[in-house]
Amino acid sequence: MANAMLVVGWWLLPITAYHIVPMLFSALSWRELLPPATRPDVIGVTWIRWIRESINSLLPVANIGGDIASARLAHLRGVPGPQAAASMVVDTTVGVVTQMAFVITGVAVLVLRPSGGATFEVVAGVLIGVGALVAAVAAFVLFQHKNMFERFAKLARSLLPEKWLSQFAGSASDVDDAVVLAYRSGAAFWRANLLRLIGWAAGAGEVWLVTWCLGQSLGGCRQLRLCSHAAILAKVSKTFETS
After folding, report:
1. Half-sphere exposure of 219 (CA within 13 A, CB side)
2. What is the pLDDT of residues 179-210, one digit of tens each?
């Protein structure tokens, strides 16, 4: 914090405050995946999203501790447990898919503004990373539609006493059903994707604000390229960290 203040001074405050914008769109995206009758209000889901990001960023929880905490907080605010857990799974998938779309947009901008052979080397590397993530996400979505939680429950049943897992086994089946229903929610599911994509784009404004405060303002295309390439690197690094 002290080093950041020395570099950008009091501009650190508006930079930090601006992060609320992309975080708000991410929260609204997740809210669309919750049951309409029990979903928290906008302030509630934004607060939960903030807690989720804070836990994943600051604690050594393999980037999933915040998701578990979010499902628990949503449940405490009236969302049924299976729907709260399912929303986290589908929200994670929506986040990865829309992030890949954002990355591909940045690659397209880079291709349209070539600057030598090095550009195509970067594009090739990014596309390889995106291709690997596409395969992983496709497998994950397929697994979600094949009773993922029930399979985990069966695996746990072979390792732990039955009396510990009797309630969890029933809940696992309910979560699997809720996951499938979330994907089939029609307009709500597509609104979640659109809002999350807007959130990724809003993150480019965060980069612009930082560079502007440092006296190195970037144009719109350069912001998009920088954010999209950073996104794929962050996603790959988090994948290895979780593994």
Report:
1. 4
2. 999 999 999 999 999 999 999 888 877 777 77
Amino acid at 110: L
117-144 and 162-183 helices cross at what angle (nearest 10)? 120
Separation of alpha carbons 105 and 91, rounded Å: 21
Q: Helices in the chain by DSSP H: which ranges?
A: 2-8, 12-18, 20-32, 42-58, 65-76, 81-112, 117-144, 148-157, 162-183, 187-213, 220-242
51-100 pLDDT, tens per residue? 998 998 887 666 778 888 899 899 999 999 889 999 999 999 999 899 88
Structural domain span for residue 224: 2-242
Q: How many domains does the chain have?
A: 1
Distance from C-alpha of 20 to C-alpha of 90, rounded to nearest angstrom: 22
Q: How far is CA 210 from CA 4, 5, 10, 109, 206, in A?
A: 11, 12, 12, 21, 6
pLDDT at 241: 43
Q: Which residue has the tokens 């939680």?
A: 149
For tokens 């309630």, the residue is 167
**Residue 19 near residue 207 (C-beta atoms within 8 A):** no
CB 40 within 8 Å of CB 101: no
- In angstroms, rounded to a whole number, what is the distance separating the alpha carbons of residues 193 and 182? 12
Count how many Cα atoms sit within 13 Å of the Cα of residue 136 in the half-sphere of its side chain: 16
Rg of the chain taking only CA atoms, in angstroms = 20
CA pair distance 74, 87, nearest whole angstrom: 10
Two tokens at 21? 């914008």
